[in-house]
Amino acid sequence: MNLPMPDRKTADLPGHWLFARLGKRVLRPGGLELTHRMLADARLTGVDVVELAPGLGRTATDILARNPGSYTGVEADTNAAGAVRSAIGSRGRVVTGEASQTGLDADSADVVIGEAMLTMQTNAHKADIIREAFRVLRPGGRYAIHEMVLQPHDVPDAVKDEVRTALARSIKVNARPLTAGEWTELLTEAGFAVEKIGYAPMALLEPRRLVADEGLPGALRFVFNVLRDSDARARVRSMRATFRRHRDNMAAIEVIAVKPA
Ligand SMILES: C[S@@+](CC[C@H](N)C(=O)[O-])C[C@H]1O[C@@H](n2cnc3c(N)ncnc32)[C@H](O)[C@@H]1O
Question: Does domain 10-258 bear CATH number 1.20.210.10?
Answer without folding.
Answer: no
